[in-house]
Each structure stands twice: as structure tokens, then as C-alpha cells.
Amino acid sequence: MAATRSRDDGARILRGPLTAGKLAFDRSAAATQMKVLFISRAYPPVTGGIENHNWALSQWLPGEAAVRTLANRRGKRALPWFLPWAIIYALWTGHRFDAVLLGDGVLGVVGWCLKLLRPRLRVVAVVHGLDLSWPARWYQRLWVRRFLPALDGLIAVSQATRALAEDKGITPERLCVIPNGLDVAAFAGAADRAALATRLGRPLEQTTVLLTTGRLVRRKGAAWFIREVLPGLPARVIYVLAGAGPDEAEIRAAVAARGLTDRVVLLGRVDDATRELLLHSADIFIQPNVPVAGDMEGFGIAVLEAGICARPVLASALEGLLDAVADGCNGQLLPALDAAAWQRAITALMDDPTAAATLGARAAAHVRTHHDWAAIAARYARFLAVSPAGANSAN
After folding, report:
1. Is 66 helix (H, G, I), strand (E, B) or coil?
2. Which of 184, 282, 363, 383 is least surrounded by Cβ atoms within 10 Å, i.e. has the fewest?
3. Are residues 138 and 206 in the same domain?
4. Helix/strand/coil (H, E, C) string of 77-143?
5. Cα(1)–Cα(340) distance, rounded to whole angstroms?
6. What is the pLDDT of residues 207-263, one digit of tens each?
7. Taking the model in full, what pTM does it have?
8. Using CA atoms, how far apart are residues 107 and 125, in angstroms rounded to an integer?
9. Are 37 and 167 part of one and the same domain?
10. Residue closest to 359 by CA, chosen among 278, 282, 284, 301
11. With DSSP H G I counted as helix, E B as strand and the rest as coil, what are the percentages for the chain, rounded to 5?
């Protein structure tokens, strides 16, 4: 075994390489009756929302069940090898488990094979949004219409994802909504404005820092915000983006078109220490998502990360963000594509620091109460243990 990782509560995760290090096999054990095989095709060190979710689930679910994790650590390029291996391994060892949990809908083909050849084994998949909405005709015909409906249950990460699943023909009794969780102890830092100024390379006196973190994709709305909202805000407002992705060129074009080079900071991918500094020290966290055909925000974990750091959060009232943000509790929901509403909300928080601090404090309390991974993992275990007819009892 090559390495051992420990969670703060002492649970130990043993890891070792398979297939010359291209694929890896994780084992976790807890002294409980239910035995679960967790299969993830999207797992660190590859970065992304599903990767982070699957990693956290592999860490926290062992507190509720005996879990063995089979994970692809090499991203999409390893899928042609990982998918057949996952099918073979699950079929060969299926008799050892009470349930199989699939980390996202792309693994529906694995579940379909299991139900075909081991029909009594309970198989459940997590669905995040894009794994249901990806518009490729062959994917919709096979994965969404055939493979996923064959499973015993689907765990949607938001009500928007559940609604999409129902629109795709998944029967409601097979569905359960369990929101994403957060390891709240991992964000136990503090604001450091001087360190933030050093990292951004500029003085921040009399400056309001807006922050967005995460992958730069069109649905996140950064380019729209730069074009339509930022020019109407006071000159002392700057916008910091931490992340990389396919929409970066469009974002840079928006910056150039509006002449905002001195007010927009693109940091690219940042390490955990920098991300936590940003989350604790920025003034307002924004997620100005916009509707994009064939894409959707399944949940929006970044708003929870900002909330636990006591940042006031503004987010579009759209898709999975309606679950991630409880309006008035851990943030404010604003109409998507309404530049004037965004300008008013940001200006109001700038003009009333006490109200901004109160909203941030409420956000931290809300996230701690409703999204702690320990409680979320318990809900996963309940759903895995129930029959399809009792699915709603796990909500």
C-alpha cells in the first residue's frame, strides 16, 4: 500500500495503485452492517465539482457503512480502461456488498450491467445535472433513457436536478434529493486583508473585492457580469476570479471590450491556501449564473464554501443554486441576467457593512447546520439501505 490518509475523526483511508498507477483502489472500513462498493470515475487529483464531491463522499460515508472505493484518478483519458474494469470488478465481487453507489450518471452503464447480471444487488447513482442534460444523441438514448432508469435509485444533488431527471422519464419513486455537503472544519481560517493585498499585488484600502471561485464555464456568468454589471458599479469595486476553464478567452474579451483591465483579476487555478485566503478575505462572493442550453448548475458548492467563511453571498436564482442558497439565510438570490438587480444588491451591501456582516454570519451558521458532510453522509446511507418504494424516506 502506497499511502495512508486520515480524516480528522481518525478514519483511515488506505490506497494502492492498479494498472501501473493509472487506476487506483481505495479501501475504507467502518464497524457497521451495510457493505457498500463506491465507484467513482471522477476523483482527485483531477479537479472539478464531481471530483470534489466523490472524494468527500469516499471520506465521510465510511462513518455510516463499510465502504470500498474503486476510483479512477486519471481523468477522462482513462475511462476506456476504467469503465470495463469497474464492470468486471463489480460483477466479480458483487456478492460481498449490500449496495453499489455510482459517483455520477456517466457510470450508468456500469450499473446497467450489474442489474442485468446481478439483479438482486441494489445499485444507486448520484446525478449532478450535466450527466443528465449532456445533449449528445447517443448519450441521451443509451445512458439517460436506458442505463439510468434500470438502476434502483438516483440521488439528485438538487431539486433542479431531480426535476430534470423526472423530465427525462425517471420515475419519482426512484429519486431522492440529497444536497452536497461541506467539511466545515476544513475552512476554519480568518480574514487577512494584508495578505490578500499582497496576493493580488495592489493596495485594498477603500476597495470592495468581489470574488468568484470555480471552473470558468459559460453558465457561471462571469463574462456577462463583466460586460453588464461591473461597469455600473463604483470604480473602487474590483472582481477577482480564481479558476480556469473554457470560458477564459470570452472573459478576457469582455474585460478588454469594457476597458476593465485594472478592475478584473484572473488568478487562474489557485492552491488551497490561496483559495481559503480569498474566501475569508473578499468582501462579497458572487455567482452570477446565466442559463445555457444543454448545461446546468447541478448545485453550486462554491457558495457553501463562501458561506462557511462568513462571506455575504449573491447568486442567481437559477437551477441548483436554488438549493444551495436559502434566500436570506446563507445568501441572496437575484434574477439571472438582471444587471440592475445585481448592481442594486452589491451597492446595498457596500453601503451597509453591518448588514453584509450579518448576512455572512447567518451564512456560516446555516451551512454548518444544514450541509455538514457528517449529516449528509448519514442521508446517503439511509437511501442506500431502503427499498426503491421507500426512497423518499431518506430525504
Report:
1. strand
2. 184
3. no
4. HHHHHHHHHHHHHHHHHHHHCCEEEECCHHHHHHHHHHHHHCCCCEEEEEECCHHHHCCCHHHHHHH
5. 57
6. 999 999 998 999 999 999 999 999 999 999 999 999 999 999 999 999 999 999 999
7. 0.81
8. 8
9. yes
10. 284
11. 50, 20, 35
* Residue 384: count of CB within 10 angstroms of its CB: 24
SS3 322: helix
pLDDT, tens only, 92-141: 999 999 999 999 999 999 999 999 999 999 999 999 999 999 999 999 99
Among the listed residues 290, 392, 380, the one whose alpha carbon sits nearest the alpha carbon of residue 342: 290
| DSSP track, 152-200 | SEEEESSHHHHHHHHHTT--GGGEEE----B-GGGG-----HHHHHHHH
Domain with 51, as residue range(s), is 3-181+373-394
Question: Is 232 found in the same domain as 83?
Answer: no
User: Do 163 and 206 reside in the same domain of the chain?
Assistant: no
Could you tell me which of 238, 234, 178 has the C-alpha nearest to residue 212? 238
Among candidates 97, 104, 110, 103, which has minimal Cα distance to 150? 110
Grid coordinates standing for 172?
419519482
Residues 51 and 177 in one domain: yes
The DSSP H or E segment spanning 211 is strand 208-213
Nearest to 266 by CA among 306, 302, 198, 213: 213
Instruction: Give, in order, the Cα–Cα distances in Å from 322 to each of 159, 317, 328.
Output: 8, 6, 12
Residues 294 and 383 in one domain: no
Pair 291, 199: CB distance under 8 Å: no
Phi-psi group of 61: left, alpha or beta (phi > 0 → left; psi -120 to 50 → alpha; rest → beta): alpha
CB-count burial class (<10 Å; 0-12, 13-18, 19+) for 172? exposed
In which residue are the cell numbers 478588454 written? 256
Query: DSSP assignment of 252-291, as one string?
Result: HHHHHHHT-TTTEEEEES--HHHHHHHHHH-SEEEE----
Query: Distance between CA 196 and CA 200 in Å, rounded?
Result: 6
What pLDDT score does 395 carry?
Answer: 57
Distance CA 293, CA 166 (A): 18
